[in-house]
């Protein structure tokens, strides 16, 4: 037992060490990310000192880009398991090792999600009120309490699966199926649940007709399973480029077919929504504000039409054979990600507040300080993902393993 | 997102063994400048010095405070208010009375849209003045329509009432089925037995989910440190009522708990020059509100179709 703990600590220590070692380009990249993180931290310190008045939010539009980014990223995290399904259910060997990259992305995005909700809190010092036993978690009535549980659960699940598989690889052992296969299947169901629960956060509000619609949940899932794998396609190519880690084109094309189907469903659901709102001629005020403008206010109109055109162009590219070439596929993925990011933020969170339930028109745009905090959290997420890859790629390639542990550690273990 | 080439492709074998003088100095310099940058980025937090207190951090949930603990907390709040505003307040933890369920009735025929209720409420309930937080919003509605989409919030004529309009003040409707209570992730807001939905200002985490859930836009958030001129403090305070709030928490109309739970009328009612506002115990058949709901031919609950079942009724002189 003592021995096992010691071995594990050596593993952690070596992983920790390697995160701080690299060539000048690695230091440059990590240094730049750290600098943006610090800028964000500084902006957050200002927000803590002066309150959320430093943001563009108001009593009228009481959630903004923090919650918008949160919503988008929950989708990305959920979609990371879209790589798991082909591997474990259809035995697609092509994607086998890549699952770990997907799940590490899920871990990094969940960390970003938690950061985004934390910066949105007026009293982050009271976070302990959410801890069951210590505080007063309003479970199961509040959908936010569900979100707290499913997000943290998903984080633990993925940390366990990645951590276990990587440690086995490090030790040169075959992973014991009972130790991770059940968790993988739980994680697949759980992934759908995190995004469904996040959708229900909005759907559950009867006083906001724009959100209180049964199509929001399905659209969340469809758009997440578009943007998530699209992001992974880009990330895998970057990994392949930088690390000479072998990733086949066929693996990328498998992901392309996931993006393809999800985007078709997403656009189909969008058509349903727009038809329902506008054909009858008595469309809901927030929808009018979003798509065509209302009472002379139309800040979101260019955004949503940009998102819709991105999605449509991406959909056509995806169904055409041209997106089998990586150049076009990458362009398509960028369009998907940008389109859906706008759709989830500017297209879903913000218009739900405009007009207010009392019919007041107050628009929203994020402040500089708020934007810096967002950039800081994105940099933090990239920093985490880079570190995870820095640790896991050498392990998967067999360059960082028990076999090449430095001698002093082995001697200490023997004594 | 683009990583420079080959940064992740380093040889992982650890160089740690031969830490030369030079590399030691370099590591220390990097570490020191990193810590300095961290400290600099956190420097705005110094302004929070006077806001931090261990007592407040570990403050228990309202419903878990024993009477002794509550007495302590009330004393602490009195001390804090005196320190901050130079006036010794009288803070009480007023409980709901048995056999009482409060109901509000507002006569739309009489309301003239003068907004006196809005300002009396701010005076009474120690709301922040800059920025000003108001619990009551008076809507100017075009003649003949109850469609809230047509409401004008910022009307400012020479004098009221104006021809062709009627006025509809909206504040917390004290729903029987309050969406705000359901969504709160930490039970920081709840409905008391007398029908008043209250907020534990010391328990709210400031997520603003209740604000998104409220169909009446009745909740307000302290986006910054509330500021109230010392001479405007109302020293007669209740724990779940008008005691001064802090930055980052929600607040809302609580039917003037500090008045109504000791048998007085809410401030908005007392100030109304038109006699449009009626308040009382619906469980008492001889109360004015019971009489109104019994005899008026038409009264409405705002957004009745949402199933929130407000304890706030609008009626007409017909």
Using brief descriptors, characterize the structure shown.
heterodimer; A: 415 residues; mainly alpha; Formate dehydrogenase/DMSO reductase fold; 14 helices; disordered C terminus; B: 318 residues; alpha+beta; Alpha-Beta Plaits; four-stranded mixed beta sheet; two-stranded parallel ribbon; 9 helices
What's the short story on this structure?
By secondary structure, chain A is mainly α. Helix content of chain A is 69%, strand content 0%. Chain A has a single domain (2-414), classed as Formate dehydrogenase/DMSO reductase fold (Up-down Bundle), CATH 1.20.1630.
What's the layout of helices and strands?
The complex is a heterodimer of chains A (415) and B (318).
Chain A: H1 2-18, H2 24-50, H3 65-79, H4 84-88, H5 98-120, H6 143-171, H7 177-203, H8 216-243, H9 249-278, H10 285-291, H11 301-319, H12 326-349, H13 368-396, H14 407-414
Helix pairs in contact in A: 2-13, 3-5, 3-7, 3-8, 3-12, 5-6, 5-13, 6-7, 7-8, 8-9, 8-12, 9-11, 9-12, 11-12
Chain B: H1 21-42, H2 54-57, H3 67-85, E1 90-92, E2 102-107, H4 116-124, E3 137-142, E4 165-170, H5 179-183, E5 189-191, E6 197-199, H6 209-213, E7 219-221, E8 236-238, E9 250-252, H7 257-260, H8 267-271, E10 277-281, H9 288-295, E11 299-300, E12 312-315
Description of the molecule:
- The complex is a heterodimer of chains A (415) and B (318).
- With 415 residues, chain A is an all-alpha fold.
- In chain A, 69% of the residues lie in helices and 0% in strands.
- Chain A has one domain: Formate dehydrogenase/DMSO reductase fold, CATH 1.20.1630.
- Chain B is an alpha+beta fold.
- Chain B is built from nine helices and twelve strands.
- Chain B has helices at residues 21-42, 54-57, 67-85, 116-124, 179-183, 209-213, 257-260, 267-271, 288-295; strands at 90-92, 102-107, 137-142, 165-170, 189-191, 197-199, 219-221, 236-238, 250-252, 277-281, 299-300, 312-315.
- In chain B, the strands form five sheets. In chain B, strands 10-2-12-11 form a four-stranded mixed β-sheet.
- In chain B, a hairpin with a 5-residue loop joins β5 (189-191) and β6.
- Chains A and B meet through α1, α2, α6, α8 and α13 of A and α1, α5, α6 and β7 of B.
